[in-house]
Amino acid sequence: MTNNMLSQEEIDALLKGELVDNIDNNNNETVGEKEELTETEKDALGEIGNISMGTAATTLYTLLGKKVVITTPKVEVTNTEELSKEYVVPFVAVDVKYKLGLEGSNLLILKTDDVKVITDLMMGGDGTNTDRELNEMDLSAISEAMNQMVGSSSTSLSEMFSTVIDIEPPRAFLIKLNEDNIDLDIFKNKTIVKISFRMIIGDLIDSEIMQLLPIDFAKNMVSRLLGQKSDFNSDNLNENMDLINQEGNEKLRHNNESKNSTENLSYNVNNEEIKKQEHINVRKVEFQSFDENKKIEYNESIDLIQEIPVEVTVELGRTTKKISEILEFGPGTVIELDKLVGEPLEIFANGKFIAKGEVVVIDDNFGVRITDVVNPSKRANKI
């Protein structure tokens, strides 16, 4: 047995057509080829991405309060070497693994500045606070955003594949695609499907978001979508998609018919039960007359409620701060309020605004002298 002999794994790979018969005798390595997708498979993956990302964009709009558009998918086959040469700067990766309905994982790649904009909006900012280092709070926030986005897109995929699809909680982290020690399942297969989307968020982001999938996982999704185990051609793509839609409509129609049949059966049974009941005598109800107006006197003494405690509070002023500013509070921090020096303070009784007053000092204690009692019509609850 010599060093130039092929292993059983290499022989199996050659029989499957995944490797070319090109052996480098100097390095004792087998040179591999990229497995490709047909145009029909690319079209199907683009349609899957369109539907899932469309739902995800709606979810992201709810989180950010900004118009979100994710569109124009571009599907291509690549590998780890090409990715490492094309994307050399650090990115934020979100690892999404399917735990039900689909078996596999995919990686969402976002630019670090885009993540800063998204997380700043999620924390109540205006999306311009990007001149800073990416921190753990950013990664935690983008993980939650992607959890909700991919979760909603899984609902759309469930309807598309006619099965329940669920994911594990996504994990966000910084990644450099040109590093050799990336320990992710997706990079164990050299051939990777890259689906690129254009992402627009208000007037803050006009960028690109990438979805990376192992090629076997991508092919499996397409095969399941079109209901075939082998390769297919572009001529039957529309027919298969129409068939899927027809099956979905037929299921919906069947569910509606079953619902109507159940309601009719319940109605008929209830009618039969009514007919079987014994005859009941019915007579007109007689109500007591209240025409006579009698003067009723109540004890209006306030003694009854004099012992009920009422909480009186005095508000010195208010202010509004961002979470990032509150996290910077410490001993000695001065907080500016919305009240001017000498401006009357507001006095509340059980949260109801009742009077205005001014601060006084009695011995070593603070007190409030009431200067004005508010008209009841102008009173409001404490917000």
UniProtKB/TrEMBL annotation:
Membrane topology term: Peripheral membrane protein
Keyword Coiled coil: no
Every Flagellar motor switch protein FliN-like C-terminal domain range: 304-374
CC terms in the record's Gene Ontology section: bacterial-type flagellum basal body; plasma membrane
Alphabetical keyword list: Cell membrane, Cell projection, Chemotaxis, Cilium, Flagellar rotation, Flagellum, Membrane
Localization annotation: Cell membrane
Record Pfam families: CheC (PF04509), FliMN_C (PF01052)
GO MF terms, alphabetically ordered: cytoskeletal motor activity; hydrolase activity
SUPFAM superfamilies associated with the record: CheC-like, Surface presentation of antigens (SPOA)
Domain CheC-like protein: from-to ranges: 41-76, 137-172
Gene Ontology BP terms: bacterial-type flagellum-dependent cell motility; chemotaxis
Domain of life: Bacteria
Coiled coil: none
Family annotation (InterPro entries): CheC, CheC-like_sf, FliN, FliN-like_C, FliN/MopA/SpaO, FliN_T3SS_HrcQb, SpoA-like_sf
Family statement: Belongs to the FliN/MopA/SpaO family.
Protein name according to UniProt: Flagellar motor switch protein FliN/FliY
Native source species: Caloranaerobacter azorensis DSM 13643
